[in-house]
Structures are given as C-alpha cells and as structure tokens.
What does this fold into?
Amino acid sequence: MIKKLSISHIKYFICLFLSAFVVIVLSACGSDFDGYVDENVDYTNNTFTVEETNGHKIGVSMPTKDLQRWVQDGENMKSQLHNFGYTVDLLYANNDKNLQNEQIKSMIDSGCEVLVIGAIDGSAIAESLETAKKAGVVVIAYDRLIMGSDAINYYATFDNQLVGTLQGQYIVDALDLKNTQGPYHIELFTGSSDDNNCNFFFGGALEVLQPYINTGKLIVTSGQTTKEQCYTQGWSTDIARERMENILKTYYADGTKLDAVLSSNDSVALGIAEALSAQYNGDFPLLTGQDCDINAVKNIINGKQSMSIFKDTRNLAAKVVEMIDAIISDETVPINDTTTYNNGTGIIPTLLCDPVFADKNNYKEILVDSGYYTEDQFK
Ligand code: BGC
It folds into this structure.
C-alpha cells in the first residue's frame, strides 16, 4: 500500500512542483501564458506527443464529439495523461461503429500499450478487440461496458445504477409521493438500446418509481413502460422530441396534466423540453437529465428541466490515469467493484466514481464553484 501510494504520488507531486515552477518563471518573465492548453494545437484528432515522454503510448477512443461530455472526457484524459509523460493517441469516431473499429486497429498498430475505449456499440468492435488481446494490449472500457468480449480487462465508469436511483428519487421527492395522494402522470424515456448503461439508468430509476406505479399513485398515461418502448436510439434529441410530441398528442390532448418525465440524459431531455414547450408554459412538468451539458443547465435555470446528474469527468479521467499508471508499472490496479458488471464473459473489475445531482438550488456550488464551468457559459 505504502509502495503503491509512493510511486503514483511522487510522480504527481513532481508534476505539480514542475508545473508551479514553470508558471512562476513564466509570469515573472511577463509571459501571457494562460494555462496548460496550447491554443495552436489541434488536440482533438491527432497523436499528441509531449517533449518529456515516459516512453509509453496510450490510445483513447471516444464515440463522438457531438455531445459535449465526450469532448470533455477526451480533453481531460489527454491532459492528465500528458502530465504523467504519456504520449496520447486521442480519436473521436463520429458515432460510426466501423470507423471506431478502424481507429482502434490503428492505435494498436502504432504501439499503444493501453486502450481506453468509450464504445459506440461494443459488439461492433469485436474484431479490433481480438487484435488487442492477441497483441497483449490492456483494454479499459470507459463509461460504457463493452459486452461479450473477453478482451476487456477493466471498466471505469460512474455508478450507473446510482444515476438512475438519483433521477427516480428526485421525482419521488419533488412530487412528495410519500405524503400526497396523487395520482400523478408520468412518462418514461431512456437512451440507446446498444448502450449497456441504459439497463442501469432505467433499472435504477424504475426500482424507485415502480412501487408508486404499482399502487397507482404514478400513472404512465401512454402505457409505455418497458425498456424497449422507452429507448431513444442513438440518444437522439430529435427522436426524443418526436416521441414526446406523439405522446402529448395521443394521450394528453384531453387536458390531462403531465406531472413528470423521466429522461436518462440531457440530449434526450433537450428534445422532450422542446416538445413540452409547445404545450406548457410556467407549469412545466418535472424533467430529469444527466451530464450537466451547458444547454441542459441553461434549461434548469430557465425552468424547462428540473435536474441533471453531474458526472465530474475530471475525476473519472484522474482515476483512469491512476489505473493506467498502475498497469504500466505492474502494480495493483485501483478498482472498487468486483461484483456488479458482468459483460457476458465474466465480471469485469471496475472502478466506480460517484455521480451527484444538480438543480437550480445547487448548480452554482457544484458546477461553478468547483471550476467546471464559469457562470458566463450559462448566459
Ligand atoms: C453516458 C451518458 C451519456 C450517454 C449519451 C451514456 O453511456 O453514460 O453520460 O449521456 O451515453 O452519450
């Protein structure tokens, strides 16, 4: 334990010391140095090599740049790996499964020793994962578990079940379901059927909401309660908007008031909020989300979304870098869950980070005071 702590921490403190030294020297010289990121470098789709490398190369494969969270994930991974001297190959796959497969193969060919993969569709990258396994490359599934492959060595994510639980509990508390009679009307939306996380998001929320649905205190007016009926393919804002519009037209045209909508994330919530805006004004239904995307936080501030789950990607990146460092140094890899995530080939040792919820009462403290966003970004 002491040995493990000392190696990672000594490197970390050396990094901190050197960074502080550089900042002090540059500011003493009157430089306009304003942080770590070099504006002249396109970090997003290239191999980024640091001058003082530790000789190890890591591949980071992210699903898309369309959603803000994945851009933040990639940037955080890259800069934190860079701090430890790693060369980073960061690629975004444009939500194209075949492209992700090709990109992973090119990372293996170029000598990456560890791959961190936020998969679009785990089953579509079986071929490149097989190549990784044969080449002895260690694979960490990032955020989304890659199913059915025995090439996955570790999984790093936020507690996905807890994400759903927090969303469900928010609705229970906001409607005061324990102390009021109801009935209240609710509709349910989750994410893409090819994303294993949905089992946990939807499952976690339903575990909390189902008892109230069973007693009739919560009524799903559309009757659409199964996961299959509630999927939003590709986590698409447009698909979510269309489904919400159809539900409103078909089941709420008689004036039935919709009290709450469960949405597993922010891109889906955005479409739902657009559909609701056409019908509700002021008495907006409760609406959950996840990621604290800037547009979602704006909606929280203006009353069109009630809450979002904050997953601090800085923490997840820091934990994954610790895992990588342990893998490269042949030390014990830090994990904290060995029971929950079975990808069909067995339990995958997992590192879970804690999500929290943000709403209009605490978003400043959670998102602005923590330095994740500036208040200006919500204007
Ligand atoms: C992630 C969410 C994200 C969603 C859509 C899920 O796997 O856990 O944070 O909103 O994908 O990209």
